[in-house]
Amino acid sequence: MNDYSLPKYDDPRNWIKNARKKDFDWENILLANKANDDELRKFLENQVDMNFWPDLSVEDWKALVRLQQDSEEKTKFIELSHGTALIYDPKQDNAVTVPTDEYSSWQLYRKKLLADGFKKESVDEIERATLKILKRLSNDTRESGPIKGLVIGNVQSGKTANMAALMAMAADWGWNMFVILSGTIENLRLQTQTRLFNDLNQTGNIAWRALEHLGKNVDISQKAQSLHFEEKARDRYFTVCLKNSTRLKNLIQWAQVDKNKQKHMKILVIDDEADQAGINTGHVDEDERKKINALLCSLVNGKDENGQDIESKYQAMNYIGYTATPYANILNESKEESLYPRNFISTLAVSKEYFGPQQIFGYSGDSVNYEGMDIVRIISDKDLNELKNIHNGDAYSIPKALFDAVAWFLCGVGCMRIWGYKKPVSMLVHTSQGTKHHQRIADVINEWFENHSDDQIVERARKVWEEETTKFTFEDFRNQYPDYDRQDDEINQYPSFEEVEKEIRILLAGKISNIKLDDEGELSYHKGIHLCIDNCVNNGITDGYHVRLAYPDKDKMPSVAPAFIVIGGATLSRGLTLEGLFSTFFIRSVGMADTLMQMGRWFGYRKNYELLPRIWLTQKTKEQFEFLSALDQELRDEIQYMDVNGRSPSEYGPKVKNSPKVSFIRITAKNKMQSATPAEMDYSGASNQTYLFDNDQDILEQNIENTMDFLYQLGDEWAPVHRYPHQQHAAIWRNVDFNRIRAYLEMFNFQKRLSVFNDIKPLLDWVQEMTNVKKLGDWNVVVVGKSEPTNGTWELPNGTVINKVKRSKKTNKNELENDIINIGALRDPSDLMADIDLDSIPDSDLRQEITDFLKHYNAKGAAAYRDKSGLNTTPQLLIYRVDKDSKAIDSTTRIDLNAPEDLIGLCLYIPGGKRGTSYASTVSIKMSNDIFDGDADLEDIDAD
User: Fold this and answer.
1) Nearest one of 869, 875, 874 to 839, comparing CA atoms
2) What is the residue-averaged pLDDT of the chain?
3) Is the pTM higher than 0.70?
4) Most exposed: 5, 12, 206, 459, by fewest CB within 10 Å?
5) 923/920 Cα distance (integer angstroms)
6) What crossing angle do the helices spanning 381-392 and 400-418 adopt, rounded to 10°?
7) pLDDT attached to residue 665
8) How far apart are CA 234 and CA 237, in angstroms?
9) Which is it for strands 801-803 and 692-694: parallel, antiparallel or unpaired?
10) Percent residues over pLDDT 70 in the chain
């Protein structure tokens, strides 16, 4: 068989790709748009003579087409599995492709990413995501008006690399002016500008130039009149601008001072941290705009600094917001002149090396399932009281948790140096936004080192080391982050404490101090600990020391990894990257979900020190981050669903769900979510499953009896024309009246700690209402089993035999859970597809698309493809019988089920509705809850 991947087949392969871009279907491409095989044969012969193609038989051509078709389909499912999605206005598209010239800005940047240690798979993903976004932009918006989009990334996940990739690829395609809006802090602006210039300024087809503090009165060399925006110019310009009213006003004046230059500008505005500073907090119903938001709207909408229309237009204006916390952006307002992303919303993939909220705090759902990592430690109320006294300047004792965190930092620095780590390593202490508090915490840490001998500190470190390395082992890491994309031999394992102790003593001998200046006024780093207080009070030099955080330049890095304990508030809450961070002591100081998520500096990549990250939090803050893990994943799932079902953000606002799984919270400030549509409940798209069960034989037996009665009432099951592989181990009843479902669920004994199920009446009432108004129809009931009867069988009332399923029990973490069986997750996501009837889908292309999805099945698209198959108004009830004697695979987090009776597990899925139907375009969140009450941790103590 021929190897069609060889370069000699590139020309015919490119012909196929170009045909797909022109919307040829695969049936036509199979014959090269000819009438029959004879004409196809002549076409192939002509291509050999005219375009120097290789000799291809008809069979070769068809094999090449089928391979290309399979590759395209697999790419769709790769995007599903990576978690990328893009919802957009279907009228919006352009013909850009990936630049292939080796001296193009994109190819040069791609080489740099690979040289900097990015995996090829990660760079390919950046390329794929960048092209998807670039195809949504326009290089001529004079008639259409500006393009507005939103890209959702992850906290500390390398968003800057994606922004630089977009700039590089857009520059290759003719965009010539890039404006990066960068928060409100000058040193972070400088950090962004320097990094972008270093990333993009490579010798090639394009010459990059960074412009500073633009305005009418800038240096002549930076005036628009002096720059080259004409069509064939190789120059590309970018400026990083603070979201500051003066800077924005000056930028608008600079861009509009020369009408001739303005009409040649093809502008891409990239709003880094788009949910910060630029959101309209004025009354949207009264057309009142806060100054920064008004200036941003004027810039993007082509108006002057006073918001007035002007005669001249930019050739192109495109605005893209980048953020990891997009709640304010999609709940704020959606007027034509606003920055609402009406043209597209895109999500970036989550790398399998990223330590994010789901990986650390856990999340159990169809698209993502993580137990959570046992690296979070709880700060006691006693320690909180002691911290309060420190903040107040009163007499105090030392909080145990803080110095456990410091001791772990000492151990971790020792590990990093043993492993040969050559970059800075950091500990974060965030207890308050108050600058006086920062100094007092620093004083306490200093005094702890001064008042204890090296032997005492080493002994404290030994105790913490033994506790931590026992509690979170290499095996625990592998079990709790099972898809981490590094081989075992690439992960550094704990050394012996004897080795670590030697490094700790060297660290202690170097003492603890701020960053000292040498005789030439340069920052000088030592082998000890650099104690930094990063806030606006500590600008400049104090007594020959630099107090704020300043890492060494790469070319001046010390021979051993320099160690930093960093204390701060606002400047450490967003944007600033803490290098080599693995020990965090964090006290909550906000009540808004989006702000708190951004404060999670511990999210990010931890290559070469995967076993070291530890986080000290209060119990309440831990629960908040567990909620944020669900909120974040559900929004991504919602956008994935909209992507598969072709819903545009200009027609449907993505729902930030008032999730039935958890208590309600304030997801962002009230004045940032003014256009949210209030809704008491919206369960559309919800999938809820029972994963907690009472460890009580009577209750479990009653549930089995009720379930058998319910199934008996359903009568004969549905018999499909063809039983496809996705239906092989299931019994299915279709078109079941909701009243039967309701009666069964009201009789069922749910574990009291299961949210939604512990008070199921609101859900049932909502479904009843949606059923009455014909937005939901009858239900499908599916009893699902394993493929093999290794855990026994279950005979249903109609005689059908279903295999029982196996689920092990999660290890209890406290005595209060002894009466509860927690299995973590019940449903296999593929079971959601069991009631899809392929034979009933009239559209052959859609039937083939869903068949292909089932063949390349991925959990992330299951709900969307079920709805797409015609079941978009058909709710589903899945029923499982779990073998009481289920055995656990060897794991520290799982044990044998050992239940007194089999468990009946239920999963309810409520579909998202017909295209054209929206149960609630956007949903505001009830404020009455005890998880996010708006108070800080130390304020909670004050209230006692």
Assistant:
1) 869
2) 82
3) no
4) 5
5) 6
6) 90
7) 40
8) 10
9) unpaired
10) 81
